[in-house]
Amino acid sequence: MTSSPPSARAKRASDASNAESAAGAPSRAKRGSVSSQDALDFSSPLDVVCGVDEAGRGPLAGPVVAAAVILDPKRRIRGLDDSKALSAKKREELYEKIVERSLSYCVASASVEEIDRLNILHATMLAMKRAVEGLALTPTLARIDGNRCPQLSVRSEAVIGGDALVPAISAASILAKVTRDRMLLELHAQFPVYGFDAHAGYGTPQHLAALTEHGPCEHHRRSFAPVRVAFERLGVKVTLPGGGRVAAVELRKDAFGEDAFGEVGEGPLS
């Protein structure tokens, strides 16, 4: 994590926010694909905005990773986009620029154990909360990719498709994706039979075949249906902490046209 001391701009943003609250200033509702925790005007140029995104909701193995980024308007980063639309080489290049030029950033995660205990949605919200709270510079507004926000101590705004629309969210998407891919490369070194270096834990045919042949490892998510099925083939009954629920997944095409399992919902363990 890196950061810089709070700037005068951040202080002005905080003062302006407090003054608006005290005066009971009216707010404007955002239109389009944006939702918010409260009915405040999110368009203030004085806001210190962090973008937040995650990587790894759909895979069958590994943690879910989230990042929060506050970009420096004086140090523009060209080429920011949804991480899934970028090549691995381009993501790595942009990762270094984001780390170098951002006012502050933080990358956090929720473990496989937390995913199995809380479910993948709540674990994702936890990772996002950790990322925002880990910033050295406190934002006045967090813009979250997707249709819902974690519970934060600062104002938050959900932006559907924000990883392709909001530069700070794009930057967070890239940090989260690169960090998680690096984690899965480390797992591959420990468990090469699963091919984590090729699919980053997603439910590709290669991964499913390895699950069938070798069974799951400690880094597989027991709350995901294909992993549960693989355990049952070995005669192991899956019991999740706290009466957790198994996530249902379906075979889809990923961003690169490859077959991959993606989360579609949850059902009770039976």
TrEMBL record:
EC number: 3.1.26.4
A molecular function GO annotation: manganese ion binding
CDD domains: RNase_HII_bacteria_HII_like
BP terms from Gene Ontology: DNA replication, removal of RNA primer; mismatch repair
Binding site for a divalent metal cation: 53-54, 145
SUPFAM superfamilies in the cross-refs: Ribonuclease H-like
Binding note for cofactor: Manganese or magnesium. Binds 1 divalent metal ion per monomer in the absence of substrate. May bind a second metal ion after substrate binding.
Keyword entries, A-Z: Cytoplasm, Endonuclease, Hydrolase, Manganese, Metal-binding, Nuclease
Cofactor(s), names only, from the UniProt record: Mn(2+); Mg(2+)
A cellular-component GO term for this protein: ribonuclease H2 complex
Region (Disordered): 1-38
Cellular compartments annotated: Cytoplasm
InterPro entries in the cross-refs: RNase_HII, RNase_HII/HIII, RNase_HII/HIII_dom, RNaseH-like_sf, RNaseH_sf
PROSITE patterns recorded: RNASE_H_2
Domain RNase H type-2 intervals: 47-236
Reaction(s) the record says it catalyses: Endonucleolytic cleavage to 5'-phosphomonoester
Family, per entry: Belongs to the RNase HII family.
NCBIfam families, A to Z: PRK00015.1-1 (NF000594), PRK00015.1-3 (NF000595), PRK00015.1-4 (NF000596)
The protein, known as: Ribonuclease HII
Organism: Trinickia dinghuensis
